[in-house]
């Protein structure tokens, strides 16, 4: 019951945050002077194409771009009726992409779940790498194993993601025959789901997952190591040692459990960085996630597309953070329900 | 006991060390804190080396034009994609001072790439303190003297040349001017914002604290890069390179402050209850004075250490933005802009030297990380 109430409360704050974020995003997107359509109209006028102007004017009316900014926001988000009734983000209408001349929902369709998949894989990768390496580095502190792990972690933090992506792709292709670019082989695009398609996607995900996860895993590993080191000098560890518990069992049974808390809590800090990374890496590697759309939309002021992608990315992060918060409460009963003691 | 002319009493017997049983156990116990920190910091060899390296890097910035053999946008049409050249001292067992071999380009029309042949019979000595393209020393004084120049009829591309025949080495030096200062400007912005908001939240508490905390939470929960992208896409494209550079640094700083503000707030919450703060308040000091004179100095060193650790993120951020074409743009030279040129597989496969700019990025970021870690470890000088 307590947990349910906490979950509801946490969900409520998430919605509230999302609302503030939507305002922020709307303002940022409307920072550049003018919009896609008014630029287009000016260009069409200059080249004397009158019928194009009519269409652009129609779209401007249709998407309420001629109204004041605050009204535009309310219509975009779906809080106020637009020219064709209530049809904003919360009604599931994501708007029209002027650049691609198609509805936003149609353009991003497939990209959405590929984005989720990629980020999920990256999070799993981070845990899979950081957990054993962090514990190892702490257990064998100040030995070559520790130093090697530390050095790799530093290197992972210091290498720009996109370069790592390019280099790994090149060498992966050359030596391991990993496919280059994209999220799947071209012949599967638009095809229904099949075993071969899944296999192709998995194969294509190896390098991006690695690249996105590296810096996160490095940071996570170092934190876990520090936490473990704090715990390893506590009396209860000595007691366990004195009782003759095997080293591996001892680590897993006592200090790891205590050190594990921040490990889960950290996902809230980690996730924004990883989603950022996935956008960047997708652009560099031409993955069919929403990253490339975001870049294209931002460059051409295609505001509905850019706005939706930004909202989606924020939503993804917020949901991830919420899940990690709930996991933390389940994992550690000492954490008090509610908002006190932040 | 003797009496000085000024009526002071002076004990003529020499002072004996071991007679004083109340002397501190550690000889440097009463040394100023910064000296203790320095002693401790010196023991972190890696951090020390990193610090010296970074200092050298920043000292080179104003005289980059003098050290670079070429100016950043000087094109040599005869040397497109020239490979790195080495500077040798001995030619056929004979010492003739630093020289280079001339290289000549040939278009390989079968593989569509440039191939270069080195003429190893004609060593051409380098020229020193010679005239070249004009640049501004310290950004102020126009000059055309370079430390090294290419001899007549040859080139000196230490790290090769790029697609337009521009010297990579010179461009990396010039690029450092922007890439390295972005972090400094960004961190100043983030510092001011972070300390102000963190101090207000921690010192005043109550409603301001609640509002600022929510702001921090919201800003921290949005992925940075898409926001950077959106903000820098909003920079008008007709602005000059300098204006774009400043606005990009400010953007990087604006999104960085929440982390700093959070730690400042936590510090303030704990320091607020200290006696000396109470005393200052009781003596009628205004909040701004209490914050500035009594509380900030207490954890300034902590802030500096954490700032050092967040500069790399900004350097990487600038690189990523410029790489994607939304940060600094072409006439400006930064490491990200240079990598933007190298963003295809051909430049890794055939012209590998065009991706050299990633080396300084990695080294500088590593150095900042080591330095920051060392600083953080030496902040508490009384802990052994």
Our count of domains of chain B comes out at 2
**Alpha-carbon distance between the two ends of chain B:** 42 Å
CATH class placement of the largest domain in chain A: Mainly Alpha
- What CATH architecture of the largest domain in chain A would you give? Orthogonal Bundle
In CATH, the topology of the largest domain in chain A is named MetI-like fold
Number of domains of chain A: 2
Q: Return the string of H and E elements of chain A.
A: HHHHEEHHHHHHHHHH
Poorly predicted regions of chain A are: 338-342
Low-pLDDT stretches of chain B are none
Overall 3D geometry of chain A?
elongated
How many alpha or pi helices of chain B? 13
Q: What's the gyration radius of chain A in Å?
A: 24 Å
Task: State the helicity of chain A in percent bands.
Answer: over 70%
State the assembly state of the protein chains: heterodimer
Per CATH, the class of the largest domain in chain B reads Mainly Alpha
Relative strand content of chain B? 5-15%
What is the CATH homologous superfamily assignment of the largest domain in chain B?
Answer: MetI-like
DSSP strand tally of chain A: 2
Subcellular location (chain B): Cell membrane
Keywords (chain B): Cell membrane, Membrane, Peptide transport, Protein transport, Transmembrane, Transmembrane helix, Transport
Main location (chain B): membrane
GO cellular component, one term (chain B): plasma membrane
């Amino acid at each position: 019951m307590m947990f349910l109430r906490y979950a509801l409360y946490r969900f409520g704050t998430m919605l509230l945050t999302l609302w503030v974020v939507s305002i922020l995003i709307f303002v940022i997107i409307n920072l550049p002077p003018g919009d896609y359509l008014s630029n287009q109209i000016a260009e069409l006028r200059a080249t004397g194409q009158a019928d194009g102007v009519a269409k652009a004017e129609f779209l401007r009316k249709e998407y309420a771009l001629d109204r004041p900014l605050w009204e535009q926001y309310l219509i975009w988000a779906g809080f106020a009726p637009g020219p064709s009734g209530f049809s904003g983000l919360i009604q599931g209408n994501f708007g029209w992409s002027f650049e691609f001349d198609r509805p936003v929902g149609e353009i991003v369709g497939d990209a959405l779940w590929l984005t989720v998949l990629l980020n999920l894989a990256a999070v799993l990768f981070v845990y899979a790498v950081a957990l054993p390496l962090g514990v190892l580095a702490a257990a064998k502190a100040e030995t070559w194993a520790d130093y090697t792990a530390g050095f790799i972690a530093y290197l992972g933090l210091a290498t720009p993601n996109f370069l790592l992506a390019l280099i790994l792709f090149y060498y992966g292709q050359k030596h391991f025959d990993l496919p280059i670019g994209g999220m799947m082989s071209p012949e599967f695009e638009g095809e229904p789901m099949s075993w071969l398609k899944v296999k192709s996607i998995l194969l294509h995900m190896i390098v991006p997952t690695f690249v996105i996860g590296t810096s996160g895993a490095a940071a996570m590993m170092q934190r876990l190591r520090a936490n473990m080191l704090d715990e390893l000098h506590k009396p209860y560890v000595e007691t366990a040692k004195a009782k003759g518990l095997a080293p591996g069992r001892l680590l897993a049974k006592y200090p790891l459990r205590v050190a594990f808390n921040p490990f889960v809590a950290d996902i809230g800090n980690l996730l924004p960085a990883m989603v950022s990374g996935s956008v960047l890496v997708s652009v560099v590697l031409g993955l069919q996630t929403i990253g490339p759309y975001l870049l294209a939309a931002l460059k051409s002021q295609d505001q509905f597309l850019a706005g939706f992608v930004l909202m989606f990315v924020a939503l993804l992060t917020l949901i991830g953070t919420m899940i990690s918060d709930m996991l933390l409460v389940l994992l550690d009963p000492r954490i008090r329900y509610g908002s006190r003691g932040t | 006991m003797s009496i000085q002319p000024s009526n002071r009493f002076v004990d003529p017997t020499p002072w004996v060390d071991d007679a004083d049983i109340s002397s501190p156990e550690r000889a440097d116990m009463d040394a100023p804190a910064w000296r203790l920190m320095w002693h401790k910091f010196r023991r972190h060899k890696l951090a020390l080396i990193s610090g010296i390296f970074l200092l050298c890097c920043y000292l080179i910035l104003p005289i980059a034009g003098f050290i670079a053999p070429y100016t950043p946008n000087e094109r040599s049409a005869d040397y497109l994609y020239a490979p790195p050249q080495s500077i040798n001292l001995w030619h056929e067992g004979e010492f003739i001072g630093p020289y280079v071999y001339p290289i000549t380009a040939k278009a390989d029309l079968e593989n569509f790439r440039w191939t270069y042949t080195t003429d190893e019979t004609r060593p051409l000595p380098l020229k020193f303190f010679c005239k070249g393209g004009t640049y501004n020393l310290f950004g102020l004084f126009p000059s055309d003297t370079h430390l090294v120049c290419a001899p007549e009829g040859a080139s000196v591309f230490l790290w090769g040349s790029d697609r337009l025949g521009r010297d990579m080495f010179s461009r990396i030096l010039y690029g450092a001017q922007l890439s390295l200062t972005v972090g400094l400007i960004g961190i100043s912005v983030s510092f001011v914002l972070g300390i102000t908001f963190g101090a207000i939240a921690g010192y005043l508490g109550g409603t301001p604290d609640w509002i600022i905390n929510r702001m921090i939470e919201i800003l921290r929960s949005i992925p940075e890069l898409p926001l950077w992208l959106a903000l820098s896409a909003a920079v008008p494209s007709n602005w000059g390179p300098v204006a774009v550079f400043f606005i990009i640094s400010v953007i990087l700083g604006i999104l960085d402050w929440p982390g700093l503000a959070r730690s400042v707030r936590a510090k303030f919450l704990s320091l607020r209850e200290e006696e000396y703060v109470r005393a200052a308040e009781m003596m009628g000091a205004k909040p701004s004075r209490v914050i500035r004179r009594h509380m900030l100095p207490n954890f300034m060193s902590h802030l500096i250490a954490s700032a050092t650790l967040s500069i790399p993120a900004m350097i990487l951020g600038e690189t990523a933005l410029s790489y994607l074409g939304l940060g600094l743009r072409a006439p400006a030279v930064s490491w990200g802009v240079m990598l933007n040129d190298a963003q295809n597989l051909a430049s890794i496969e055939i012209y590998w030297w065009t991706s050299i700019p990633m080396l300084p990025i990695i080294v500088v970021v590593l150095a900042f990380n080591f330095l920051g870690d060392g600083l953080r470890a030496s902040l508490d000088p009384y802990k052994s």
